[in-house]
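Board work, copied verbatim: Glycosidase
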Amino acid sequence: MSAMSRIEREKKAHNLFTRFEGNPILTADHWPYAANAVFNPAAAQLDGQTLLLVRVEDMRGFSHLTVARSPNGLTDWTVDSEPTMTADPSTHEERWGLEDPRIVWLEEQKQFAVTYVSFSEGGPIVSLAITKNFRTFARLGGLLPPEDKDACLFPRRFDGRFALIHRPIVRGEAHIWISFSPDLKHWGDHQLLIPTRAAYWDCHRVGLACQPIETPQGWLIFYHGVRSTTAGQIYRTGLALLDLQRPWKLLRRSDEWILGPHAQYERVGDVGDVVFPTGATVNKETDELRLYYGAADCTVAVATTRMTDLLDYISASPEVDD
Ligand code: BMA
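↓ predict structure ↓
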């Protein structure tokens, strides 16, 4: 058992993140062309700037991805004048648009991997694109059959294999899985990683939030959890820790959510009561982690915390038995 009492830990969970006072940082009004909503952004650092690959929903209700850049990650965003990645509707895979990207730096390839949802006629598919500059992309296509979403690669191989966290729907249930591949194309050895938890805030659905964050204690995993209530679904964010060398091993999991809909822009929108993180940046010098998230399926917001606080909190969270 940890030294922190449950009450102390709840207080810590409640105070872990500080919302940026300038939230929401991006809205459809910032966009250089007509859009209904801009949300669920992937995040990376490139050329001394923060880059967000933002999901943009057009007036048909279909989505594409567009880059926004900022010198400080908070303000002064410049949005690409045209969509950066659009669906190819002539393919079965991308019939109804591209959604909810995640970005990770692949150490071996020295390129960014973008995993995103292609909305196919058969349901959502996880697709992969590789890029150096977010201007040109090598599109490697779908990785696994539908229905699957909320996916991200790890930055390197484990025992010679790449690893993918994703969220297939299996028997109607929405749990987080991990799968492995020798070549980023053929995937297998599928294992359940983080299941939903009966009665908790994450009892109905879970899915990966942003990219896995490497720490000396293990991989920090942010995930969204859903509870369905009589008033609708509530999307909140929790934290888990995976073994550094064996990421298929879940070490700890937060009892509490650490970010939930509270601000007006999170409570009210196209889909109210949704915080949906999909990107993070870490500044090792300042110890700061910034979590970028979609708020109420309408806008992009950011909240900040310290890596040491996250690690203190997850170290005080329950261990998970095998
Ligand atoms: C999920 C995804 C997200 C969306 C969220 C809340 O299932 O489709 O794109 O932000 O629902 O509506």
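Helices lie at 6-15, 264-267, 307-315.
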